[in-house]
Amino acid sequence: MRKEFWKNIPLNKLTKKEWESLCDGCGKCCLNKFQKTKKSLPIYTSIACKFLNIKKCTCTVYKNRKKKRSDCLILSAENLEKMARWLPQSCSYRLIFENKELPNWHHLLNDKYKNVHNTNNSVRNFAINENYIDFSDFLLSFKKKI
């Protein structure tokens, strides 16, 4: 990969490998989100997509994720502007889109892929797989809070 490509090359000019390497592996984008109104910001839950391997913070069906889950947000350089608000504020794609620096724990800065977990910037220690949730109970309690 090109040296510090995320600083010097427009996102739509990155190779597939460079684009994919921007992901910090936090798993936050795989958390279920809700929205009060169409214009409000998303509200994140601790409930992860059933296809997220919570320990590794990776998708178990990554290449077929849109076929397996129609509401999966497939991020690209072309749709990043529209999708950025749905990404966590710590997301590397969002940070680069907003012309901000990558966090010091990001693997592109230090070659340490586990730093995202070691610095508690992933969902590893708090997310729960949606297969273990009764959504009717959850939605009822969620509606009472908002």
Notes on the structure:
The protein is α+β, with helices and mostly antiparallel strands. The chain has one domain (5-145). Helices cover 29% and strands 11% of the residues. It has helices at residues 5-8, 16-21, 65-68, 80-83, 92-97, 107-110, 115-118, 135-145; strands at 31-34, 43-48, 52-53, 58-59, 128-129. It has a 3-stranded mixed sheet with strand order 1-2-5, with no helix packed on it. A two-stranded antiparallel sheet has the order 3-4. The longest helix is centred in the C-terminal third of the chain and has 11 residues, at 135-145. The chain is globular and about 50 Å long. The mean pLDDT is 90.
Q: For the CA atoms, what is the radius of gyration?
A: 16 Å
Q: Give the overall form.
A: globular
- Strand pairing plus helix content: what structural class? alpha+beta
The count of helical stretches stands at 8
Distance between the termini: 45 Å
* Quaternary: single chain
The number of E-state strands comes to 5
Strand content: 5-15%
Number of domains: 1
Overall mean confidence score, pLDDT: 90
Percent range for helical residues? 25-40%
Strand count, sense and barrel status of the largest sheet are:
3 strands, mixed
Indicate the low-confidence ranges by residue numbers: none
The largest sheet has its strands arranged as 1-2-5
What is the N-to-C succession of helices and strands? HHEEEEHHHHHEH
